[in-house]
Amino acid sequence: xxxxxxxxxxASFYVLTVDCLVDSADLIWYEKDNDEPQxxxxxxxxxxxxxxxxxxxxxxxxxxxLRQFNYSNLENLEELxxxxxKVKEIVPGAFDSLRAIVTLTLCGNNIADIExxxxxxxxxxxxxxxxxxxxYIHAQAFxxxxxxxxxxxxxxxxxxxxxxxFQNTPSLAILSFRHNLFEELPxxxxxxxxxxxxxRTEISFDFGYNKIHIIHPRAFKCIEEFNVLNLEYNKLLxxxxxxxxxxxxxxxxxxxxxxxxxxxxxxxxxxxxxxxxPSI
Length: 280
Description:
Elements: E1 7-10, E2 13-18, E3 27-31, E4 38-42, H1 49-52, E5 56-59, E6 65-66, E7 79-81, E8 89-90, E9 101-105, E10 113-114, E11 124-128, E12 136-137, E13 150-152, E14 174-176, E15 184-185, E16 204-206, E17 214-215, E18 225-230, E19 249-254, H2 265-274, E20 275-279
Parallel strand pairs: 2-5, 5-7, 6-8, 7-9, 9-11, 10-12, 11-13, 13-14, 14-16, 15-17, 16-18, 18-19, 19-20
Antiparallel strand pairs: 1-2, 3-4
């Protein structure tokens, strides 16, 4: 029996609730609005004109394995939400036909690994992978995402930061890794943020509520300015003056909730000189 899917108009744009990313979903029910007839079509056929105007897709089907789907006819698509769908695996190439969109969210699923060729070259501005079970991210998983401006990986189980992440992501300015299990920010942790970062003064990193107890003195070597650097509620016992040597300005620095036992006078002076809004 085919799976039935509904789509409705919300505000001034279309909102589609769709179950068309699984093998058994061969029939979609598209409802243009309350005053006009409902439309039925098979996913293998041409997409109706009304559906091509869809700007937002919300998937509400349980999908253990997210397969490739043809999004090429959805020319106006701006947001794709595949949240709380029990997704465990994303097949490489699943989003290859997706045109440039504003937001892609895969929150609240069962994803453990982010492999190469899932998001590479994807033209998306905001990527949200929070509230999963992610323990592993391939070193090249986010390479060549030239439109990517923000990425959220809050509430996962990441332990090790890789300095190889985010090669050729010149628009990336906002990264959030709150509530993970990171213990260390290594040497040259942000090396791929040197050079051609477009939004130099907007760079924000949120590592709040991790287990970070070591920040290498050269971890932030390649960053000149931070809009926000949030390290609240970690396990930091000390910070070296060299940590912020190459940083010229930080608009907001949050160190509260750390068991800092060694806070040199020189470090305090550096923070007062370079940080507009310190929270210690």
